[in-house]
Structures are given as C-alpha cells and as structure tokens.
Amino acid sequence: TADAAPRKGQVHAQLQTGLLSRQSVRVDESDVEQRTTAVGPGAGGATLAVGYHLRRTSEVGGRLELAQVTYDDGTTDQRTGHLRAAGYYTHFFPVARDLRATATGLLGLERTNLDGDATARSPFAGVGGGIAWFVTPRTSLNAGLELTHTLGGRHEQDGVQGSSRYAAFQGAVVGGLNVYLGGPKGKGPKPHGRNAPHKRGGKQKGRR
Prior knowledge:
10-stranded antiparallel β-sheet
C-alpha cells in the first residue's frame, strides 16, 4: 500500500488482546506466590490504546489494560485481576510497502486485586516488539511480544498497607486491530493551462 499509515499528525486507535500469557506474582513475607500460563483470546488481558504520530516513525500515547487470571493452588481456584494505565512510545521501522516493525516502551501504574482479600499497587515498566501488516492504508493487524515488570509495589490487606514488597512479571504474545485517523491531506495536482501560475495575472512582461 503506497500511502499506508502511519503518517505525521495521525491519531492511532488500537484494540489488542493477549493470545498466550505467562505471569508470576509474589508477595514477600507471605504465602502469596502464583504462576500461571493462559492460552487463547484474552490471555494476559485486553488493551485499548490511543496515540498520536509526531512523525511517520514516532508515536506517543496512552493505554488502559484490564485482565483477570485464575490460579490453581492445588486446593481452590484463586482469581487475580489487574488494571493498568500507562504512557508509551512506539518507533516504527519500515520493512516492506505494507509491513512495519515496531518497538515500544511503557511506563505506568498498576492496581492488582488478589482473590478479593488483598490489593497491591505498583508502578511498572515494559517493553514490546512486533510487526504490523497494513491491510488498507489506514487499517492494520499487529502481532508481537510484550514483557512487563512491577517496580517496588506494596501489598495492602483489609485497608492496611503492609511492608511486604509486591512483585509481578508478565510475558504475553499479543495481537490487535489498529485504525489510523486524520493526518495531513495529500497535495493536489499542480494547475496547468490557463490556471498555471505563470499564466495568471494578465499579459506577461515585455509584451504589448
């Protein structure tokens, strides 16, 4: 697609879901230590993101992610859910006319509910890489890998914040749908004939 997005000034909307996820959660000085693998749409969460293209190759934006994971501890199933809000930067690398490789950096905040009994709050950071295939000039499908890790979160039980450190890591294979809106309009053809610039304004100099 010759005029495929992204283009400077465009708004990028993305709906993304995990396809394969590996997650681990640990709270120091407690019995909370969970690991799980999930497969299928929704594994690792669903994400809605909106970004703005500063250049064809540079995008900044924000994203919101919601996920719920079920752990089997050998006795009962425990559910853990998290809500994440993050800012991101993505760089696009042209690969072919309708293909772009992407590299993304994330930084945000996470709130996790541990089976309804406790919560944890933490900043987190992440990186990701993938490929985007433009099926139309303004629509693409993406697939890639994302890795995130918390940065010194704290555990809270019954409304009382404890001294235990909360740590979570997640790796996920993701896929999504992307739509690009707006952007500069293409330049029209130059006028010619009687409307050409050198022919407007009457007779040329030197002629009577």
